[in-house]
């Protein structure tokens, strides 16, 4: 596929940008290089190659639950502006 000036102008309009002539030429060359590289890749024989879904192995980071001591409730509530019956008291948000 050959990148033409019409394609560059179309992309320019879709992106809502204005390019100078030198920027258009640079963009055209860059896009042409990308398309040429893709054309090269399409020539490869990929029969029997499994599609790559994930590039890194996925490992679940599960861990065993461990019971650990918690912080003293009175210490946690000591700086609370409002508390009631050992809990934080907050304004009602749902009727």
Give an overview in words.
This protein has a domain of 38 residues. The chain has a two-stranded antiparallel sheet with strand order 1-2. It is mainly alpha-helical and 95 residues long. The protein is elongated and about 75 Å long. The longest helix is centred in the first third of the chain and has 22 residues. A hairpin with a 2-residue loop joins strand 1 and strand 2. It has 3 helices and 2 strands.
Using brief descriptors, characterize the structure shown.
mainly alpha; 95 residues; 4% strand
Task: Indicate the structural class.
Answer: mainly alpha
Total helices: the number is 3
What string, H for helix and E for strand, traces the elements in order?
A: HHHEE
Roughly how many Å is the radius of gyration? 31 Å
Tell me the quaternary state. Answer: single chain
Strands of the biggest beta sheet: in what spatial order? 1-2
* Number of β-strand runs: 2
Distance between the termini: 63 Å
Mean pLDDT level:
90
Content of β-strand: under 5%
| Apparent shape | elongated
What is the helix fraction of residues, given as a range?
40-55%
Largest sheet: 2 strands, antiparallel
Low-confidence stretches: none
């Amino acid at each position: 596929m050959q990148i033409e000036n019409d394609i560059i102008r179309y992309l320019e309009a879709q992106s809502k940008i204005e390019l100078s002539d030198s920027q258009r030429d640079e963009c055209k060359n860059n896009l042409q290089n990308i398309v040429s590289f893709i054309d090269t890749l399409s020539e490869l024989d990929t029969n029997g190659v499994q599609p790559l879904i994930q590039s890194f192995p996925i490992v679940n980071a599960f861990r065993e639950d461990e019971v650990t001591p918690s912080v003293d409730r009175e210490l946690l509530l000591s700086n609370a502006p409002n508390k009631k019956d050992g809990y934080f008291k907050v304004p009602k948000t749902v009727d």
